[in-house]
Specification:
Length: 551
C-alpha cells in the first residue's frame, strides 16, 4: 500500500567548508521513524557518477532511476531531481558532453500498486547553469539492453547486449544476444524509431560498435553513416541512413579456420576501414566499392578486404595523412609491433618500412588528435622510463631520422596530450615523481618532473591553463599552472576520491554515499583561496523524505 506523502525540509547542506556532522547523524533516526517502508528503500544503493554534463554535476541512482543534478555554481549551488526510469544499466555522455544517455531495464509489476515500466533509452538535457535538467526524449526499447554506442555527430545510436556480462542470473527464458536497437536521436520516438534488428550470427555476438563519420559512400555518393558491429571472427556493416537495407557481414578468418580473431581497433578513412584484431598477424583494410543494388533492400556498396602488412603483429596503429608524411595521395599507417619495432605501411600497395626501437612499445598517442603531426610511443603493459617521439612530417622520406627517444624520471604509466597540443602529461607509478610535463614544441622535448607524496589517482584539465589532481588518502587538491609549472596545494576538509572540471569550477568528489562534493573556482584554487570554496553534502538525499515511498 502506498504510504501518504511525507514532507520534510531539504536535506541538502551547503557550508563554507567544514560540513556539519549533526545532520548526517540525525538522518538515520529520521528515516527510522518511517514504519512500513516500501521494499525499494531497502535495496542496496548503486550509483553511477558523478559525471559532468554541460555545466552540471550528475549522479544516477540505478534502482529508482533518479538523476540527481547539482548546479556547480560555487556561490549558490542548487540541486535537482529527474526521473529517468528504473533499473539503469548504462549511462554515457553524448560526444558534445551536453546530454546524458541512460539505458534502463524498466520493471515488471508483480505487486499491488506497482506499475510496469518498459526498457527505455532516455536523453537527458542538462541545460545551462541555473536550468533544471529534463528528459528531452524517451525511446521505448524492445529489450533491456545494457550497452550503447553513439556516432561522433551524436545523431545515431545502437543499443545492444554486452557480450562480457553474465546473463545467467537474468531470469529470462530466452535472450537474443544478436538483437540490436537502431536509433536516430534527432528524431522523435515512433514505430520505426527505435528499429529492432537481429544480425546474422556466425557463432558470436556483438563485442562493440564503431560508427563512421558522415561519409560519401560510395565515393561521390550521398553522405551517410555506417555502423560497424564487431564480433569474434567477423564484422558487420549496417547502413544507419537506410536501416531497411540488408547488413553486410565480412569474415575475418577463412572458412574452417580454428583461429580466434577478435577486433580491437577501428579507423575510418573515407571509403576504407582499417581494422586491427588480436590473433591476426596482419591488419585488415576494408574498401567500400560501388555496386548496383539488387532490389529495394540491396546495398549500393560492397566491401573488399585486403591485409596490408609489415610481417609483424601490430599492437596499435595510427593513420597518417600522406601530405603530412611527404607522400601526397598516399594513405599511410604507422604501427607499433610485437617485435619491438614500428612500421610505416602504404595501405594501398602494402609496401612498408621498418624502424627498430629495441624495446617493447604498445601504445601510440597522436598530437593533435584529429590530424596528428607528432606521435608519442610508450609501453602501457610493461612500463619503462622512456618515451619515443616520431615526427610525422615528411616521415615517408626521413623514416628513422624522425624518431627521437627520451628517458623520463620514472616508468611511464600513461601519456595524455594536454589541451592545445603544446605539452603532454606523463603519469608515473612512483610517488616521488608523480607526473612529468613534456614540451612538444621543437625537437628537444624536455620534461619537467613534478614530485608528490602519493601517486596521482584522478586528474583533469582546466583548458590549457591548469592541471588539477587528487590522491585518495591525502586531503589536498593539487593545482599546477601549465604555463609556469608553479604548483599550489589546497587543503580539503575531507579525503578526495575524484576531481572533475565543470567550466571554470573544480568539483572534488569525496565518495560519500550521501553525495558530497567540494566546489571551488579554478582561479581561487590557483590563488590558494580555499575560503572561497563550498562543501555540498547530501545531494543524493535531498528531498528524499519529500517523495512518495513506493516500490
Amino acid at each position: 500500500m502506498r504510504r501518504p506523502r511525507t514532507h520534510a525540509a531539504s536535506l541538502l547542506l551547503v557550508t563554507s567548508w567544514l560540513a556539519g556532522a549533526t545532520l548526517a547523524a540525525a538522518l538515520p533516526l529520521t528515516l527510522a521513524g518511517c514504519s512500513e517502508r516500501a521494499e525499494i528503500w531497502q535495496a542496496p544503493a548503486s550509483v553511477i557518477g558523478p559525471l559532468v554534463v554541460g555545466e552540471q554535476v550528475v549522479w544516477l541512482e540505478r534502482a529508482r532511476g533518479l538523476l540527481f543534478a547539482l548546479d556547480a555554481d560555487v556561490q549558490s549551488p542548487r540541486s535537482y531531481q529527474v526521473r529517468v526510469g528504473r533499473n539503469a544499466t548504462f549511462a554515457m555522455l553524448t560526444p558534445d558532453k551536453r546530454q546524458l544517455l541512460v539505458l534502463t531495464a524498466g520493471r515488471e509489476a508483480i505487486k499491488r500498486d506497482q506499475n510496469d515500466e518498459p526498457p527505455t533509452l532516455s536523453v537527458v538535457d542538462a541545460g545551462t547553469r541555473g536550468q533544471r535538467p529534463e528528459v528531452q526524449r524517451a525511446y521505448r526499447l524492445p529489450a533491456a539492453f545494457d550497452r550503447l554506442s553513439v556516432s561522433s555527430d551524436g545523431r545515431f545510436a545502437i543499443a545492444f547486449y554486452d557480450a562480457a556480462n553474465d546473463k545467467s542470473q537474468s531470469g529470462d527464458v530466452f535472450r537474443n544476444p544478436n538483437e540490436l536497437a537502431l536509433l536516430d536521436l534527432t528524431a522523435a520516438p515512433g514505430n520505426d524509431n527505435p528499429r529492432s534488428r537481429t544480425l546474422r550470427s556466425f557463432g558470436s555476438s556483438p563485442l562493440g560498435v564503431a560508427f563512421s563519420p558522415p561519409t560519401e559512400i560510395p565515393a561521390g555518393g550521398r553522405s551517410r553513416t555506417l555502423a560497424l558491429v564487431l564480433s569474434r571472427g567477423y564484422v558487420t556493416f549496417v547502413d544507419m541512413n537506410e536501416p531497411t537495407r540488408r547488413e553486410i557481414t565480412v569474415p575475418l578468418v577463412t572458412s574452417g579456420s580454428e583461429s580466434t580473431v577478435e577486433p580491437e581497433q577501428v579507423v575510418f578513412a573515407g571509403q576504407t576501414v582499417y581494422l586491427r584484431a588480436s590473433g591476426a598477424e596482419d591488419l585488415y583494410a576494408i574498401s567500400l566499392e560501388e555496386v548496383t543494388p539488387d532490389g529495394p533492400q540491396g546495398n549500393d556498396y560492397s566491401p573488399r578486404i585486403n591485409q596490408p602488412s609489415a610481417g609483424r603483429r601490430a599492437l596499435d596503429l595510427l593513420l597518417v595523412d600522406g601530405t603530412t608524411a611527404g607522400a601526397p595521395g598516399k594513405r599511410l599507417i604507422l604501427t607499433v609491433n610485437q617485435e619491438n619495432d614500428l612500421a610505416l605501411i602504404d595501405a594501398d600497395t602494402s609496401q612498408f618500412s621498418r624502424i627498430p626501437l629495441g624495446e617493447p612499445i604498445d601504445t601510440i598517442v597522436g598530437v593533435p588528435k584529429d590530424n596528428p603531426t607528432l606521435a608519442l610511443l610508450y609501453s602501457r603493459s610493461a612500463p619503462r622510463a622512456r618515451i619515443h617521439f616520431v615526427n610525422l612530417e615528411n616521415i615517408a622520406i626521413a623514416l628513422g631520422a624522425n624518431v627521437r627517444s627520451r628517458s623520463t624520471a620514472r616508468p611511464v604509466r600513461e601519456v595524455v596530450a594536454v589541451p592545445g597540443g603544446a605539452q603532454a602529461l606523463v603519469v608515473h607509478d612512483n610517488a616521488r615523481a608523480v607526473v612529468s610535463l613534456v614540451d612538444l614544441i621543437g625537437e628537444n622535448h624536455t620534461d619537467t618532473p613534478i614530485a608528490g607524496t602519493l601517486p596521482l589517482h584522478s586528474f583533469d584539465f582546466v583548458g590549457e591553463a591548469q592541471l588539477v589532481g587528487v590522491a585518495p588518502g591525502l586531503s589536498r587538491l593539487g593545482v599546477l599552472d601549465l604555463t609556469t609549472l608553479h604548483p599550489v596545494n589546497v587543503r580539503l576538509d575531507h579525503a578526495p576520491q575524484r576531481v572533475l572540471v565543470a567550466g571554470q569550477t573544480l568539483v572534488i568528489d569525496h565518495g560519500s554515499s550521501a553525495g558530497m562534493v567540494t566546489l571551488l573556482r579554478s582561479a581561487d584554487a590557483m590563488a590558494g583561496e580555499r575560503e572561497a570554496g563550498r562543501v555540498v553534502w547530501g545531494v543524493l538525499l535531498d528531498k528524499l523524505l519529500d517523495s512518495d515511498l513506493e516500490d
